Amino acid sequence: HADALPAGVLGRLVDAHDVLMTLAPLLEKRPWRASRGMDGREVRFEGGVWAPVSDADAHRMPKAEAQLWLAVLGLCTDGTVRRRYAFTDFRKATLVRLRKYLHEGTVDQIPPLVGLQRAIDELSLSETPAVEPRPAYILEQLPEIRDALLKQVTDWASLAHDQLETHFSASAEAKRAHAEQLAELYATPAVERLLAGPAGGGKGGAGGGANGGLSDGEHEVQISCWAIEGDGDGGGGGDDDD
User: How far apart are the first and last CA of the chain?
Assistant: First the structure.
């Protein structure tokens, strides 16, 4: 899905961080596997703990390894990445070394890796392309609001605590206060004219209609207040129906 990514994200994956050259050595070293004990029994790091591997699971691929193979597959076979990525001699040699791990046991567990086999074979037979000179500048969209927040906010724990008590509070008092704020917002003349529409005095205006003389916004706020009051009564409104 590289073609759906913004140019800045793709540039960081391919150029700034060179994720492909980070994942390939991990597949070679496989740090989630180790041999321990006098018998050299294999243990694997899965689910946050090191655990011995049973004989039945000895040939099963760990989840972390499978995820890395799929990531390398996506980067090596995606047309957008291949057009942008400069396969130098070093990068080419690093990827070709992975070919010996793509044996029958690996491909049987992840059949799409056949495409990675083909891509590495083609890469090993192709000439190393000349590196094209790149411009000295990079045009990239930056998250200005996020960067500004990261620079200004230092105590994230206090900020999260305040938002939990205000914005994410589920108490009846907080809901009622929020409804009052909405009512004040919709009571302004500018909002009333906006809700009335270009014709002026439209549906829900002062002419009196199904909403009893209230604008649409005020009517919705009133309904919200009724719902909050009903919640605060603990469902007491059900007695009237009986």
Answer: 58
